[in-house]
Specification:
The protein is of the alpha+beta class and 431 residues long. Helix content is 31%, strand content 21%. The protein has a single domain (56-372, 410-426), classed as LCP protein (Aminopeptidase). The protein has a seven-stranded mixed β-sheet, sandwiched between helices. A hairpin with a 4-residue loop joins strand 10 and strand 11 (220-222). Keywords: Membrane, Transmembrane, Transmembrane helix. It comes from Herbiconiux daphne. Residues 112-268 form the Cell envelope-related transcriptional attenuator domain.
């Protein structure tokens, strides 16, 4: 209350006339009632949304794990904006972790059976997704479990999927860094149940089979042609090995790349990106089923990741298998093909795009088409402007231009994989 309002009123001899109050109309009362109801509804919705977002953030933070190894944390992403520059993200699929349930059996230790590295270029125009075979025999660095402090000695030659048992997500991250020479600042791990819930939240992912596949080991039972899968059937498709290709883990990787390519197309479709219920369901499924590195465990980081990827052209998202081959020293395992791996990661480290050679499709997979919604961003051809030449002036006999010549990405022959724009079908197992 201001000073003016506190001053005593002056009394006048003239009688005060009281105005007649208007009788409120029924229509006006209804409008006021609706306004109150609307205000309460808006406040309630806002409160629920704020609670939901806060609840998700708490779940993510509570499960976060430090993968930095004592190094400085990466810069925080901008609020509701894309990452600045490029980044590397490791995604690990675990077997026998506490969240997978009893229906998948038990093992003596939790294994990192799926190991996928995502690299996004600094200009956000290209992305590379590298799948590492779980049975890849490589050197493992010394690891310290960030939750218990237990130290695990370095090993010279062991399968990649033993890394998680030696220190969780942080150790898998260090092992892939040691193999590739990359700095990986962001990582995430999910279980079987996580795959199921994430696929359900998206509304299913279309996959294609050349012939029907019935595999009792994984539970996969699908007809020839395209099927939209979710739940247990999506997990069965990703786990299936004996029913596809040559029955090897490399054939399974080709199926996983088909699935991930289709998921990328689904996530980039207008129906998915504009469906609030699907987006919230996806966030909720992620919070409950994915363990994130502390560098990624915030709403801002996850939003920035999505915003960075959403504009990458499908033709410029390349899925590749880490180059590997058989070895007499390690039966039923694979070892790195060093020259080809060096060529691949030289491009990734230099942040340079590349393309796959002919017949690059992975074992057990057949290309059937290209997504008509994808656009091919071929380098624009540049034409030098015509210069005015004076015949009398010898200096103008050879006109020059400062426009650089167009370049095309280098082809790396021998790599197996596909682009996100390519639609592939899985081949049934054959000897």
């Amino acid at each position: 209350m201001n000073d003016t309002a506190r001053r005593p009123r002056r009394h006048h001899a003239t009688p005060v006339r009281h105005g007649r109050q208007r009788t409120p109309s029924a229509f006006g009362a209804i409008l006021k009632t609706l306004a109150v109801v609307l205000a309460v509804a808006l406040v309630s919705v806002g409160s629920v949304a704020a609670y939901a977002i806060n609840n998700l953030a708490q779940q993510v933070s509570a499960n976060a794990v430090d993968i930095s190894g004592g190094e400085d944390a990466p810069p925080a992403p901008p609020l509701l904006g894309a990452f600045e520059g490029g980044f590397n993200l490791l995604v690990v699929g675990t077997d026998n972790d506490p969240n997978q349930g009893d229906s998948f059996g038990e093992r003596d230790a939790t294994l990192n059976d799926v190991n996928i590295l995502l690299h996004v270029s600094a200009d956000h125009k290209n992305a590379v997704v590298v799948s590492f075979p779980r049975d890849l025999v490589i050197a493992h660095p010394e690891c310290t479990d960030p939750t218990t402090g237990e130290v695990f000695d370095a090993m010279s030659a062991q399968p990649l999927n033993e890394a998680f048992s030696r220190g969780g997500l942080a150790c898998v991250n260090s092992t892939i860094e040691n193999l590739t020479g990359l700095d990986i600042n962001y990582a995430a791990a999910t279980s079987f149940n996580g795959v199921i819930e994430m696929t359900n939240a998206i509304g299913g992912v279309p996959v294609c089979l050349v012939e029907p596949i019935l595999d009792t080991d994984s539970g996969l039972d699908l007809p020839a042609g395209t099927s939209v899968i979710e739940g247990q059937m999506a997990l069965a498709f990703l786990r299936n090995r004996h029913g596809v290709g040559d029955g090897s883990d490399l054939s399974r990787i080709a199926s996983q790349q088909q699935y991930l390519s289709s998921m990328a197309r689904t996530l980039k479709s207008a129906n998915t990106l504009t469906d609030i219920s699907k987006l919230y369901g996806l966030a909720n499924a992620a919070a409950q089923n994915i363990q994130l590195s502390s560098s990624l465990a915030s709403a801002d980081s996850m939003v920035s990741l999505a915003l960075t990827l959403k504009d990458v052209d499908l033709n410029n998202i390349v899925f590749v298998q880490y180059p590997s081959g058989d070895s007499v020293d390690y039966p039923n395992k694979v070892v790195p093909v060093t020259d080809l791996a060096d060529a691949l990661f030289a491009k990734v480290l230099a942040d340079e795009p590349f393309t796959l050679g002919d017949d690059a499709t992975g074992t057990g997979s057949t290309v059937v088409g290209t997504d008509p919604g994808a656009t091919t961003e071929a380098p624009a051809e540049t034409t030098a402007p015509e210069a005015s030449v004076d015949p009398a002036d010898p200096a103008t006999d050879a006109p020059t231009t400062d426009v650089p010549p167009a370049t095309t990405p280098e082809v790396i022959d021998g790599l197996k994989g596909q682009t996100a724009a390519e639609q592939t079908c899985a081949n049934a197992f054959s000897d």
